[in-house]
Amino acid sequence: MDITPDSFSNDTELDAIVEEACDLMESIYSEGDYPKLMVKRSWSEHNPIITGEIAVPSAYRWYLKRELRRLLTKKAELRIFPSRPRVQLNDPLLFESADEDEWDITQKKLFLFTPERIDISLNRLEHYTGTRPEDFQRYILFTNYDMHVEVFHNLYPDCVKPARAVQMPAYHHKLPDNKGFTLVNIGVGPSNAKTISDHVAVLRPDAMVMVGHCGGLRNHQEIGDFVLATGFMRADGILDELLPLNIPITPNHMLNVFLKEILDKNSLKYRLGTVYTTANRNWEFMMKRTVQDIHVSRSVAIDMESATVATNGYRYRVPFATLLCVSDKPLHGKPKLSGAAQSFYEKSKEMHLRIVIDALEMSKKQNPEGLPNASIRAVNEPLMGGPG
């Protein structure tokens, strides 16, 4: 299929051509080949022609439609055709082609991920979450509490649910063009946070938000106060070899603005500041060394997932934010104990989730085609990289 600027004369015809292009890519994939897309950009002096292969195009059709439409609006020429037979998921060659250490950062790419990486990630995503990749929405919330799942069910009783018991169950409030919300209960710890964000990133979501609890580290915080992260102390260690610690990781500014606006609108008490993420749930048993890092970093809260999700958001160019709620104050004689924790959970669970959903609704209205992400884009950014 060849598409030129002469192939359409109005928006209706453009939309029809984009739909046809997506249908063709899905057909090529279902028949056993990777679809290949060639983009010719007459305005580019150094990289006028860029090609790329994809897998499972049905899982992020909304994203392909948006990106193809943008390219065609700019008068690019497109060609779609079968590339090569799909590598089977049990083929030893699969992981050789999915190895991120082999990425050529000097070569302009069309897509961030290889088709082999897309295939294995989406297969694992379905395995871990119990739902199809096609069910995932553009706005993804991560939690590690069943109570947030309960609130999500109450808000969206018709949401798609896992068909079986799984490690990280996902729930999807589906809207046209995938503009709904997905909630994933990722469990506890940075390993789970890395695993889920590794795979979710393949779907190119418009936002990832960590909705978790934390230990408050400042005198004037109280149980139930919120923490809106403005930075992260990466003490989890799980991505240190993949992204150097000296690279600053900050949440999406506009997401934070929307979250702050909702917090202020509801007259809720919160702190802005650095979140310290650790891999050691029992860090209090080696408190001196941890407290020293907390003081040096000026951290206002401690948790086990936020920095991990944020770092993968940075790596994979997905806008991210973190809103935590203080469940205990370990440095001030208020550790997380079972009875008090249950009382706190009941009081905070609905408000916490509603704040994030309301903020994302604001984002959707002001940025219907995705949040600007220039702060996490590279000079060698893939052509299909989302809003700039």
Which superfamily, in CATH terms, is the homologous superfamily of the largest domain? Nucleoside phosphorylase domain
- The level 1 CATH classification of the largest domain is Alpha Beta
- What is the domain total for the residues? 2
CA distance, first residue to last residue: 28 Å
Instruction: Tally the beta strands.
Output: 12
Total helical segments? 10
Largest sheet descriptor: 5 strands, mixed, barrel
- Rg on CA atoms, Å: 22 Å
H/E topology pattern: EHEEHEHHEHEEHEEHEHEHEH
Low-confidence runs of at least 5 consecutive residues: none
Q: Into which percent range does the helicity of residues fall?
A: 25-40%
CATH architecture of the largest domain: 3-Layer(aba) Sandwich
CATH topology description of the largest domain: Rossmann fold
Mean pLDDT: 89
Question: Which structural class best describes the helix and strand composition?
Answer: alpha/beta
Shape descriptor reads globular
Instruction: Please list the strands of the largest sheet in the order they lie side by side.
Output: 8-11-10-9-12
Percent strand = 15-25%
List the topology elements.
Elements: E1 2-3, H1 11-30, E2 33-40, E3 49-53, H2 61-73, E4 77-85, H3 93-97, H4 115-129, E5 139-143, H5 146-155, E6 170-173, E7 181-185, H6 190-200, E8 207-216, E9 226-235, H7 253-265, E10 270-278, H8 287-297, E11 299-303, H9 306-315, E12 320-328, H10 338-366
Helix pairs in contact: 1-2, 4-6, 5-10, 6-9, 7-10
